[in-house]
Design a protein that fits this description.
The chain has helices at residues 4-8, 11-39, 44-79. It is mostly helical. The protein has one domain (4-74). α2 (11-39) packs antiparallel against α3 (44-79). The radius of gyration is 17 Å and the shape is elongated.
Length: 81
């Protein structure tokens, strides 16, 4: 069984998480910071908030993918395959 780090940083999981982060993060950033984005009036706090807006969906996608892989492997072990 692969260790957690090799699963979390596998190309498939990272690429999926990046795609989810770009789509969901962009939508959330526009919803939450539209006026500042359109005025191009960023503070350090706004930049940090927008970075978190992209990080959270990345983390959720990565965690979900990891859990799905672990659950599938556990099911395979229980089935004897």
């Amino acid at each position: 069984m692969k260790n957690a780090t090799s699963i979390l940083f596998s190309a498939a999981i990272v690429m999926r998480a990046i795609k989810v982060s770009l789509v969901v993060g962009t939508l959330l950033a526009l919803i939450n910071h539209y006026p500042k984005i359109m005025d191009w009036s960023f503070t350090a706090e706004t930049v940090f908030q927008i970075m978190l807006t992209y990080f959270v969906p990345y983390a959720v996608s990565t965690y979900s993918s990891y859990q799905a892989i672990i659950n599938m492997k556990d099911a395979d072990i229980k089935d004897g395959t």
